[in-house]
Write a structure and sequence with these properties.
With about 180 residues, this protein is α/β, with parallel strands linked by helices. The protein has one domain: Alpha-Beta Barrel (TIM Barrel), CATH 3.20.20. Helices cover about 45% and strands about 15% of the residues. It has a 4-stranded mixed β-sheet, sandwiched between helices. Strand 4, helix 4 and strand 5 form a beta-alpha-beta unit. Helix 3 runs parallel beside helix 4. The relative contact order is 0.14. The C terminus is likely disordered. It binds zinc ion (ZN).
């Protein structure tokens, strides 16, 4: 079975029907990551159209500044989500340094909830790799510490289809996800 560990299904607009058809035909288990609350609501609707689509809630670092004071609201969405994503830190593409404290605050809230609820996390990191590792956000810290930034980015931002068996880390992701969702 193929797994797409990270895709923004709500961004496909006119191509969505075609994408869902391909997901069904090729039997691709698809983790649909959200950017924010409206995006999550949209993904839940899309998820009703295929049992292979898993909508997950997250607030992307680009959107974090709007949510730093809405943690309770975020908390309710996390409760309803089987896994978490997309969350993370972006100190590269997001140029406005005023948003960085908000990014950290939102990420910490998500990570604490994910730990407590034992939920798999889909991380975005661009320019924030070291900080994420230093915070022990990723469980496989020892393994990742020995990796190059490029490899870490591939692991945490797997924006492409891949054979899950190729990668022990993603294999673990699958085993976390599939028992309760298959
Ligand atoms: Zn993404």
């Amino acid at each position: 079975m193929l797994i797409d560990a990270h895709v923004h299904l709500d961004k496909y607009a006119d191509l969505l029907d075609q994408v869902l058809q391909e997901i069904e035909q090729k039997r691709i288990f698809t983790v649909a990551t959200a950017m924010d609350i409206p995006s999550y609501l949209e993904l839940q609707k899309i998820g009703e159209r295929s049992e292979l689509v898993l909508p997950t809630f997250g607030v992307h670092p680009r959107r974090a500044a709007d949510y730093a004071d809405r943690l309770q609201e975020i908390g309710r969405c996390i409760e309803s989500s089987p896994a978490i994503g997309e969350i993370g830190l972006d100190f590269h593409w997001v140029k406005d340094t005023n948003t960085y404290p908000a990014q950290r605050k939102v990420l910490e809230y998500f990570i604490a909830a994910a730990r407590e609820q034992n939920k798999f996390v889909n991380l975005h990191t661009k320019g924030g790799e070291k900080e994420i590792l230093d915070q022990n956000v990723v469980d496989k810290v020892a393994e990742l510490r020995q990796s190059t930034p490029e490899r870490i980015e591939n692991l945490v931002h797997a924006n492409f289809l891949r054979m899950i068996e190729d990668d022990p880390w993603l294999y673990e992701v699958r085993s976390l996800l599939l028992p309760s969702n298959s």
